[in-house]
Amino acid sequence: MKILQLNNVSLLKESKSILKGITIEIWNGYIHAIVGPNGAGKSTLANTIMGLSGYRDSSGDIIFDGKSIKDLSIDERARLGITLVFQEPARFEGLTVKDFILSGSKIKSKDIAIEALARVGLDPIKYINRAVDKTLSGGERKRIELASVYAMKPRLLLMDEPDSGVDIDSLKYIFDILQELKSQGSTVVLVTHSPEVLKKADHAFLICGGEIVCKGDAQKVFEYFVNKCSPCKHIGKPSKD
């Protein structure tokens, strides 16, 4: 069963064609990957699905749970259960880790925050009252952000470059949590240029120059990405036509 469908979605930015007639289906309860070289349109596609400012003027349609969300604001999409985790983790000066984790959770319980921290391998006693600020490393902030997603339990999670700026231990916890969310019924979309991250997906789409050039199970797309995508005719940049 599909939870998200994009029908002929295109986007122009600064008179350049960034997305070109994207038509894909995201199946409920799976881990999907959108993979491709830098500049291929991966993050733009995720931002368009989320409805971020500057990415609202796409053509085509975005269907979530059987209904069009193209005209909905980012807040309205979030209330439907869609969330986007950026490549650079959020930082809110003065906000405690507990409050950050519980900000999107329906249940505002300290126990939820403690459980979420433990799930991402961070000692709740050490972290629960810390501030989400520059004293935390990139890997710590990534894990804390993922703990907030775990507490939120979104219906659709879009995650941009999950392996960016994290160590091997943090990456293991990230993938464990993604599997946990999947087992609880969440649908995950990983935006990545990493073949190793691609291997963690059940299904994948390869995007290049704003177009889907291959789709299928992760192994099929992995082989295409590794064997046929170098050199890329777009040289990591969207074409101008």
Describe this structure in words.
The two termini are 35 Å apart. The strands form two sheets. The chain has a six-stranded mixed β-sheet, sandwiched between helices. Strands 2-1-4-5 form a four-stranded antiparallel β-sheet, covered by helices on one side. With 241 residues, it is an alpha/beta fold. Helix 6 (138-152) packs parallel to helix 7. Strand 9 and strand 10 (211-217) form a beta hairpin. It has helices at 42-50, 74-79, 97-102, 110-119, 124-127, 138-152, 168-183, 195-198, 218-228, and strands at 2-13, 16-27, 31-35, 59-64, 67-68, 82-85, 156-160, 187-192, 203-208, 211-217.
Mean pLDDT equals 87
Largest sheet: 6 strands, mixed
Overall 3D form: globular
Q: What is the end-to-end distance?
A: 35 Å
> Any low-confidence stretches, pLDDT <50, length ≥5?
235-241
Quick summary:
The protein has 241 residues and is of the alpha/beta class.
Key terms for this structure?
single chain; 241 residues; alpha/beta; six-stranded mixed β-sheet; 9 helices; 10 strands; 27% strand; globular
Write the layout of secondary structure elements.
Blueprint: E1 2-13, E2 16-27, E3 31-35, H1 42-50, E4 59-64, E5 67-68, H2 74-79, E6 82-85, H3 97-102, H4 110-119, H5 124-127, H6 138-152, E7 156-160, H7 168-183, E8 187-192, H8 195-198, E9 203-208, E10 211-217, H9 218-228
Parallel strand pairs: 3-8, 3-9, 6-7, 7-8
Antiparallel strand pairs: 1-2, 1-4, 4-5, 9-10
Helix pairs in contact: 4-6, 6-7
